[in-house]
Predict the 3D structure of the following.
Amino acid sequence: MPTDPLELRDHAPLLDAWLRFHEEASLPFTIPGHKQRHDLVGDVVAGDVPLYAGLDTMKLSQGVLAEAEGRAAQLWGAELCRFSVGGATHGNQALALALAGGGDGDSGNNDSGDNDSGNKNKVVVSRTLHRSMLSGLALAGLDPVWVRPEVDARTGLPRGVTPGVVDEALERNPGVRGVLVGDPSYVGTVGDVAGLAEVAHRHGVPLVVDAAWAAHFGFHPDLPPHALALGADAMVVSAHKTLPAWSQAALVLARARSTEWPTGLDPARFDAAVEATHTTSPAGAILASIDASRALLEREGDVLLGEVTAAVRATRARLTDLDGLILLDGPDVDPLKLTLVLSGTGANGIDVENDLLVQGTPVEMADRDTIVAQVSIADDAVTLGRLADALVASIGRRRGSPRAVVTASSYAVDPVTVLSPREAWFAPARAVPVEEAIGRVSAELVAPYPPGIPVLAPGEQVTGEVVEALLGARDAGVRIAYAADPSLATLRVVDN
Ligand SMILES: Cc1ncc(COP(=O)(O)O)c(C=O)c1O
């Protein structure tokens, strides 16, 4: 049993402030406008306490947020830490902004002297990046040099981007601003982050890791170390994905630039970038839940994560008996993630997802061939047992002829880049019927969701292959996200 949250408050200044707000009644003439009344729209506003004039005074005179962020920085071995109520989405955009600019030798990253090479606005980026990083590139005016992860032929799913591929990209593009990768991947595969950090640092640039799915890494011996511990310069984690935090809760963590750590981030740029893209009215309950999750990890992460990883192991062992089913497992897979490849069972993942919905056990992601069940520190043998029962029953009922494993378009796309994301984002654009879009430059980002990885990004040529992949995903029942016309009858292209 975890510690009583009331005891946790002694170790979590924002949690303490949130509890105190409720203990000390006041009559606020400040925002939020519900004024703590629950009789107008009901409990939907329950627990909503602002940071300003809530967890702290309007002038932040108590410094509770800074204290909580300092504790998190210490726990993750960072010099810089900011809490976000905008999810890893905000964190990724902030880090893209923090990397951009400079280049005059004063405060930008990569003062290697190579900045006249024409590459000073470029970053080496994994093509399986989340769309938030792509919009970050557009915001920051950074041009991607794409690198692709290896795809495992057995599962059709991505592994990490290899250090060798990144090394080659850095050799070809001297003077870039940094390397950005997502690790672990959406399906839970873990790459060689230490190797990537070594390569990036050899080229004098920072390694930034979107570790949205890995807030728990580093807090149990069975889990991989987190990206900063492996040498990364900055990382983003979603506290709401694997820790008991409110939706939207995330942390942005970084090493500060110094003589000892020359690839670290400039603290002023880091702060300015976080502020530029964050709300000025952060929800205190979200911030307090980050602080409480940090305190819980620090005090009991080892025990709780030990229990849940053991429960996931037991679930995997049970599901392994299902004929034809592939379960992602092994040292290169997040021990907390349950990813199933269904092709060999003949079951269609969308049908299985529908069965799971009926059973009240919805999963994070399902397409025809893959199911991803997201497990968190809040799960245990009981919750996982229920999921396993539902999966065994559904796969048994939905069995069919085995299919060959195919790689989803999100992981296989080979983009033809014509314009930078930013140029395409701001270019005049118009919607044309999808067949007429082929051969033109996309003005929009289109991603089957989940996983939310762009198959088409602004500035890329709309190829016949991409259109076929997107229409195929749509017809298979996958939601087409972010497109102006999700039916894909039309696509927005650059008007020239
Ligand atoms: C790899 C990756 N990065 C970032 C995000 C965005 O996270 P958030 O929902 O916390 O904004 C996601 C969301 O699924 C993701 O998969």
About this structure: Residues 87-89, 92, 130, 132, 182, 186, 210, 212, 238, 250, 452 surround pyridoxal-5'-phosphate (CB under 6 Å). Confidence is low (pLDDT under 50) at residues 103-108.
